[in-house]
Specification:
The complex is a heterodimer of chains A (about 350) and B (about 300). Chain A has about 350 residues and is of the alpha+beta class. Chain A contains 9 helices and 19 strands. The chains are: A alpha+beta (about 350), B mainly alpha (about 300).
Chain lengths: ~350, ~300
């Protein structure tokens, strides 16, 4: 089931949550809506589900216009950040709920329901919890039950609102890999909302980056990471440094400082160069095009060395990440002078200058 | 079974360790316990004992006569009749109001919340007077009601109305914070799973607010039985017709029939105790049901 969003708008009072969004999601795809809080990603997901009504615009499943359809008739599976399991029901009853509330004519027999529920519980590897109450399960287990419950009604699309947001880091990493495998198994069109870029990059077939109610970029994880469409996407996907730069028509880039007022020469243009923290080389001696810096703060995070260095040209902080071994080999300590050289950068002309 | 076995061990160890570190000195604990017990004895247990002593002082037979005397029976019947109307109505109102406030955003919500408390703020006597002015024979709607031969003031409907008014906040007050805290995610989950609004209410909302609702109903029930001031104004105190139990007790008291007054009082107290015991029993039963399914 493909999802088509056409010209959807939603305001809450003066706040524009979703600003004229157009988006098409292909059948069987696992799409991430990625953005900071307040970017409208959850609102958009809730509009798709029917839990929120768009002020204007159309939502279609395949070619069918479902904008006016009630949430209970849309056939969506929705997974909430805080699980929203029914506290007073056992796990079995929770998963069976969508089937037991069906009108009599459409309701499967008790035996069929039981069979299906156990099959789903096996799918999420929690068959042994059938008679427990949600309060007796861990967060990760609850979220898997919530997923089984959503899948029980055989939804046309599966919508997940920050599904791993309330879990601790290890469980989150485990569960998202598990979700990826599960999706490869069942292939239901899925959309999940997240503010965690790593999660989106790891799990999704496709990432839609949102900001201030608009879509900033829409593409595969590789496209979005390697070729960010604009500075926002660049900054949102990973730790990034900004350098002033001058770009010649030939494409040659020169890093300058903000205080560099020397006149632009003929074909040069000012811009901001975006360089990721791990795409900077650290040198112990001067080289052409290398920028002189002073080491300020050194933090070892597991296998990675994180450096904060002061750009001597404009006094700004530059964040650098490199493997610990590599840093040790440089034999540098806090306060030492060094030179840095961006290995890869992307320049956005005229941005914020 | 494993969890229920290991958990107490852990908590027992924890309980033994924590007091030394965080507990107040002993005398603080015993002073506080002493104050609480003295207060409870003076203001709860002693009066209760006095009521029971007064009621049975002259013996079982006198007590029985006092509560089966026709006027007393009429008062008991009227009180129960009013309860049967008021409590279910207020339960429904309370749920509806709490639902509206907790789950929807609309203008005038804060005003609505303050209005709900009004019956608590206004003296019951004033409440009685308000309804006399509105519905009495000299009141605003008096002529209209007389024309259609409807009697409200100095009749049972008047009693029902003022008690309904006076006990309106109990269920709503109990449920509003509960429903606000629970949010609407479970209801939303139910809707996405294809349940209609009614089924969602029945299977998801109601079980979640069950205890709050029962508690509100118990309080509402207790207050409805004991409501005096407003009822005294609108009932007209017609013996055997519009006297509820509290009014009947006052009549007996004014006529120096202390034993009879205490006898009916003991009945009223007994009804209150029954409601509280009933509530505890339901709670206990539900807890047992949950734990027994846990220990598998």
């Amino acid at each position: 089931m493909s999802i088509h969003i056409e010209g959807v708008n939603k305001r809450f009072g003066d706040f524009v949550a979703v600003d004229n969004v157009n988006l098409a999601i292909k059948t069987g795809e696992l799409t991430a809506l990625l953005g900071p809080s307040g970017s409208g990603k959850t609102t958009l997901l809730r509009i798709i589900a029917g839990l929120e009504h768009a002020d204007s615009g159309v939502v279609r499943f395949n070619s069918e216009d479902i904008t006016g359809q009630h949430v209970s008739e849309r056939g969506v599976g929705f997974v909430f950040q805080h699980y929203a399991l029914f506290k007073h029901m056992t796990v079995f009853e929770n998963v069976a709920y969508g089937l037991t509330v069906k009108p009599k004519k459409l309701r499967p027999s008790k035996a069929e329901i039981a069979k299906k529920v156990h099959k789903l519980l096996e799918l999420v590897q929690l068959d042994w919890t059938a008679d427990r109450y949600p309060s007796q399960l861990s967060g990760g287990q609850r979220q898997r039950i919530a997923l089984a419950r959503a899948l029980a009604v055989e939804p046309k699309v599966l919508l997940l609102d920050e599904p791993f947001g309330a879990l601790d880091a290890k469980v989150r990493a485990e569960l998202r890999r598990w979700l990826r495998r599960l999706h490869d198994e069942i292939h239901v069109t899925s959309v999940f909302v997240t503010h965690d870029q790593e999660e989106a990059l790891e799990v999704a077939d496709r990432i839609v980056v949102m900001n201030k109610g608009r879509i900033e970029q829409d593409g595969t994880p590789e496209q979005v990471y390697d070729n960010p469409a604009n500075p926002f996407v660049y900054e949102f996907l990973g730790n990034v440094n900004l350098f002033h730069a001058r770009v010649k028509a030939s494409g040659e880039t020169k890093f300058t400082s903000a205080s560099d007022d020397s006149a632009q020469q003929g074909d040069e243009q000012d811009g901001l160069a975006y360089v990721r923290a791990h795409e900077i080389e650290v040198l112990t001696s001067a080289e052409p095009d290398a920028l002189p810096v002073t080491l300020d703060l050194i933090t070892m995070v597991g296998p990675t060395a994180r450096l904060e260095v002061l750009n001597q040209q404009d006094g700004k902080l530059v964040h650098i990440e490199l493997p610990k071994e590599q840093f040790k080999a440089l034999n540098l300590k806090s306060g030492d002078a060094a030179w840095i050289k961006p290995k890869y950068s992307q320049v956005f002309l005229g941005e914020g200058i | 079974m494993t969890t229920s076995n290991t958990l107490p061990l852990i908590s027992a160890a924890a309980v033994q360790d924590t007091p030394r570190a965080t507990a107040e000195p002993r005398w603080v604990k015993w002073t506080l316990v002493g104050i609480a017990l003295t207060f409870l004895t003076l203001f709860l247990i002693l009066p209760l004992a006095v009521v029971l002593y007064g009621a049975f002082e002259a013996g079982m037979q006198v007590w029985w006569q006092a509560v089966t005397e026709p006027d007393a029976l009429a008062a008991i019947r009227l009180t129960l009749f009013v309860l049967l109307i008021v409590v279910p109505l207020n339960a429904v109102f309370g749920v509806a109001i709490a639902w509206a406030i907790a789950k929807f955003e609309f203008r005038g919500k804060t005003i609505l919340i303050s209005i709900i408390d009004m019956p608590f703020a206004i003296s019951p006597v004033v409440v009685g007077l308000i309804f006399v002015i509105l519905l009495g024979s000299q009141g605003w709607f008096g002529p209209f009601l007389a024309e259609h031969d409807v009697r409200i003031i100095f009749a049972v409907p008047g009693i029902v109305i003022v008690i309904l008014f006076g006990t309106l906040p109990f269920v709503a007050r109990e449920l509003i914070p509960l429903m606000q805290q629970q949010g609407k995610e479970e209801e939303e989950a139910s809707l996405t799973l294809g349940a209609s609004g009614w089924k969602t209410f029945w299977y998801v909302t109601l079980p979640n607010i069950k205890w709050g609702l029962i508690y509100g109903v118990v309080l509402c029930n207790a207050r409805a039985m004991g409501e005096f001031g407003a009822v005294a104004i609108v009932s007209g105190r017609i013996r055997g017709e519009t006297n509820t139990m509290p009014l009947h007790i006052e009549v007996l008291y004014n006529e120096y029939m202390f034993t009879a007054a205490f006898a009916v009082s003991s009945l009223l107290t007994g009804l209150a105790l029954v409601t509280i015991v009933l509530k505890s029993w339901i709670e206990w039963k539900d807890e047992r049901k949950q734990t027994s399914s846990t220990a598998r």
